[in-house]
Design a protein that fits this description.
Strand content: 15-25%
Order of helices and strands: EEHEHHEEEEHEHEHEEEHHEEEEH
Radius of gyration: 21 Å
Number of helices: 9
Length: about 475
């Protein structure tokens, strides 16, 4: 593990946290590895998240739980990868064919339950996708005191939902009735997060899981958003229509103006990222107003790589950065995601870390920070608490990371082990092998030159997974 110290960044003079931190986990939807300017984006700017990265730890080798929404979120929530998780796809597959979403089960321990048991007040805000109302997976049954948002992951992709679930009860959104676009999802979720922070008790730590639906399709944002300066050069979208507007913001890049995203899905994608960055700033300001910013751990990531839906094209903004692939791929572009940890009182030295980490590390991490007992619950993760608190000599490392994906004609598998990455497109097929330090873009398959490494990867692909009746490996 290499931990490069970031120079010229202020650190807190406060002593290390004597009490468990408040924790906010902010999750973007389909944001690529290269979509933040701190990760190389040059077409638009994300100043708030850049500030958090500069003042905290920016991880360069962090991986999502899957390459699509539901299994990735379940991996985050339960600390298990897609070889051992109960939910391994967006929708049920298996002998009965393609079915409905699977909810979390009663024995799937979640981040909410861990922190609720440690005395935290907990909130799930935004896109859920792990259990509808009345199922075993609805938020109130999985450790959350308060929930607000869309439970069904497919409906969550409407950026102007006509209803949301508030503590399990479906509630109309007044401004969005009859097809009206009065309340943007990101604005709704940001306001709820701020309200929860503002109303939190001084003597009770809180955990907020804030899951935005941006920049997932549909490619719509409010007309007051800030748009990429070349929006007018993009062809119009065949999906919806809009009109040009005015406005300018020097902070988010030269030449930005309000533009009709409905005609320009590429501009809409950039605009949603920029708007989410602005919303993170509003949340940070709410923490500062309550005097909670110093001892609040903010974690930010994305559920998978960038999408090509609703007119979005990842190549327009190099959304995957130097990586190959996108959403629904097990190449790096589909699963390697930005990950930022910001905690002024706990992170004593800002840094850039190439530590190999994953979504399934988050549950043991927050358990450590909250001094919570997991009992006999087993995870696939390793706590990142030593790295976050500067005790890097005691930071454990993964022997390997494993993924499987079943929503194609054949099941796909992937393994990351040290400097090596292996991908197999079908269970009986050949293993592709890439040496990432020399080939980050996974362009040269070197499996023929390294048969011993290939054999090791095949062993991991066989042994890392448990059998699942709904997700057999499809030939």
């Amino acid at each position: 593990m290499v931990l490069l110290l970031a120079g010229c960044h202020a650190t807190s003079d406060a002593p290390p946290a004597a009490t468990p931190p408040n924790i906010m986990y902010i999750l973007a939807d389909d944001l690529g590895y290269g979509d933040l300017s701190s990760y190389g984006q040059t077409h638009f700017q994300t100043p708030t998240l850049d500030e958090l990265a500069a003042g905290g730890i920016r991880f360069t080798q962090h991986y999502a739980g899957s390459t699509v929404c539901a299994p990735s979120r379940v991996s985050l929530m339960t600390g298990r990868h897609t070889g051992t998780s109960y939910v391994r796809g967006n929708y049920e597959t298996g002998p009965r064919g393609f079915g409905a979403e699977l909810p979390l089960r009663p024995d799937d321990l979640t981040l909410g339950e861990v922190l609720q048991g440690a005395g935290y007040r907990t909130a799930a805000i935004g896109k859920w996708g792990m259990g509808m109302d009345g199922t075993t997976g609805e938020p109130l049954k999985k450790g959350f005191d308060y929930s607000y948002g869309v439970l069904n992951q497919a409906y969550a992709h409407y950026q102007y939902p006509d209803s949301v679930y508030v503590n399990g009860r479906r509630t109309a959104v007044p401004g969005n009735q009859g097809g009206a676009r009065g309340a943007f999802s990101g604005d709704l979720y940001t306001e709820e997060a701020i309200r929860f922070i503002t109303n939190s008790a001084d003597d009770e730590p809180f955990f907020v899981y804030l899951a935005y639906t941006t920049p997932h399709a549909e490619m719509l944002v409010p007309e007051d958003s800030l748009f990429q300066r070349f929006a007018g050069q993009f062809e119009k979208s065949p999906f919806t229509k809009g009109t040009q507007g005015g406005g300018y913001s020097a902070e988010y890049g030269p030449g930005y103006g309000a533009y009709a995203s409905q005609e320009h899905p590429f501009a809409a994608y950039a605009s949603m990222v920029v708007r989410m960055d602005r919303d993170v700033r509003r949340i940070r300001e709410a923490l500062e107003a309550r005097g909670l910013a110093e001892n609040t751990l903010i974690l930010f990531s994305s559920d998978n790589g960038p999408h090509a839906e609703g007119g979005a094209v990842p190549e327009r903004f190099a959304s995957a950065g130097p990586l190959r692939g996108q959403k629904r791929d097990l190449y790096e572009g589909g699963i390697r995601v930005p990950f930022i940890a910001y905690w002024p009182r706990g992170i004593r030295q800002p840094a850039v870390s190439d530590h190999l980490s994953s979504f399934w590390d988050i549950l043991p991490t927050v358990a450590d920070l909250a001094d919570a007992d997991l009992g006999d619950y087993s995870t696939d993760g390793l706590s990142l608490a030593p790295l976050l608190t500067g005790d890097t000599s005691n930071q454990q490392k993964h022997d390997f990371l494993y993924w499987e994906f079943h929503e194609r004609e054949s099941s796909n598998q992937a393994v990351r082990k040290g400097e090596w990455k292996a991908v197999r497109m079908k269970p009986e097929g050949p293993v592709e092998l890439y040496h990432l330090p020399d080939d980050l873009g996974e362009s040269e398959d070197v499996s023929a030159q390294h048969p011993a490494v290939v054999a090791e990867m095949e062993d991991i692909m066989r042994e890392a997974r448990t059998l699942h009746p709904l997700w057999p490996l499809k030939p």
